[in-house]
Amino acid sequence: MIKAVIFDMDGVIIDSEPIYHRVEKILFNRLGIKISEDEHYSFVGMSMDMIWEKILRNNKLKYKKEELIKLHKDNMISSFQNEEKLTPLPNLVEFIERLIDNNFKIALASSSPRILIDIILKKLEIKNFFEVIISGEDVENGKPFPDIFLLTAKHLGCKPSECLVIEDSKNGVSAAKKAHMKCIGFKNSNSGKQDLSFADMIIDNFSALHVKDIRSL
């Protein structure tokens, strides 16, 4: 029986992928790195550490991985701090409130750095909903490895089989299934053409998701 619902942040809580995509594109151009659109969208759901590890395998750069991660993080922090208005995805808040009313534990597991998670949740004014918040910085291996979801379940005091993950990326769905958790794929067009076929259910709006659907998984 599902006792906890674990949300990804980017593309699920907030439609932030266009901001990431824009800022990263500027950074890649500054560094003289040629990244195709398909490759860029393959980074969705990955931690900055894994993104730069992948890029450095195929590109010779004068910077070390740690320097690139700092540059990436600083650019993202600046961009989100300067965003005047950030809003949760439609019907998200009402859905979370229904889950809480039905005694589900609520957590967030995002590949983003913790400082960025804090900035976004503060601007959205929804941080108090989450009993547990885990960042990609808290685990050695990011998505598509299962580490982040297994750590989240541990902090929630739940077995993996008692957890449901909501993810918008192929990397995230893969991580959830490797953790032996149920997974709902959230189809967000701004996350690119993500293969969510391994998810137990696919939705494109939280209004289409009900507590009885979760209990039936």
Defining traits:
217 residues; alpha/beta; Rossmann fold; 2 domains; 6 strands
Summarize the structure.
This protein has 217 residues and is an alpha/beta fold. It contains 9 helices and 6 strands; from the N terminus they run βαααααβαβαβαββα.
Per CATH, the architecture of the largest domain is: 3-Layer(aba) Sandwich
Instruction: Measure the end-to-end span.
Output: 8 Å
**Biggest sheet architecture:** 6 strands, parallel
Determine and state the CATH class of the largest domain.
Answer: Alpha Beta
Strand order of the largest sheet: 3-2-1-4-5-6
Enter the CATH topology name of the largest domain. Rossmann fold
The secondary structure category is: alpha/beta
CATH superfamily of the largest domain, please? HAD superfamily/HAD-like
Outline type: globular
Can you describe what's shown?
- There is one protein chain.
- This protein is 43% helix and 12% strand.
- By secondary structure, it is α/β, with parallel strands linked by helices.
- It has two domains: 4-16 and 86-215, Rossmann fold, CATH 3.40.50; 17-81.
- Strands 3-2-1-4-5-6 form a six-stranded parallel sheet.
- Helix 1 (17-31) crosses helix 4, helix 3 (48-58) crosses helix 4 (65-81) and helix 4 runs parallel beside helix 6 (114-124).
- The longest helix has 17 residues, at 65-81.
